[in-house]
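Researcher: Good morning. I'm working through a list of sequences from a screen, and I'd like to move beyond sequence-only analysis. For each chain I'm collecting a predicted structure so we can compare shapes side by side. This is the next one on the list. No need for commentary yet; just the structure.
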Amino acid sequence: MSIARRGRSLSVLGFLLAGAIGIISSTQTWVTVERADAGEAILVPGASALVLLAPLSLAVLALGAALSIAGRPVRLVFGVLAGACAVFLGWSTLQLLISVPESAIGPTVTEATGLAGSAALADVVQSAVPTAWPVIALIGWMILLLASLLVLVTWRKWKAGGRRYRTTTADAPAHDGPIDAVDSWDDLSRGTDPTR
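Model: Good morning. Structure tokens for this chain:
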């Protein structure tokens, strides 16, 4: 496998893993809501806490898969689109970790209690605490996407380096093996006495 193809494969793999993390995370609990009435805690899944989590993760996954079969110009466009989707997801997740907005827990709390509106939610919700899943998703997205974008942007240099290496090794003289000192001395001394 050539260096350029290996770099492209790593980029594709990064985007696929990033999309998969988002899709899996959308089904997991992202926020635990403690109720003021001492009722059972309300678990808010990722798809409810971040409405665009599932569709954008699916888009990253699809764009990552498309990178493997697209031509060079289209591949760059798909890579930029996938990166933009994932950056948006990462930023939204970070905002959720800093402070859980009412919009992230409102629909789930309303479904569980039947109460709607800011005043009603304020009476029901004692605290809303993010779980470990958004942290895992955020770290995973950032590592995979930065690595994928880095490979996608620098793959031409990888290709140039591989071509330069092949050219250098092709131009190098071939050696049959190590030089035998005895044979070399015999060849050198034929017809000439080096001690004179």
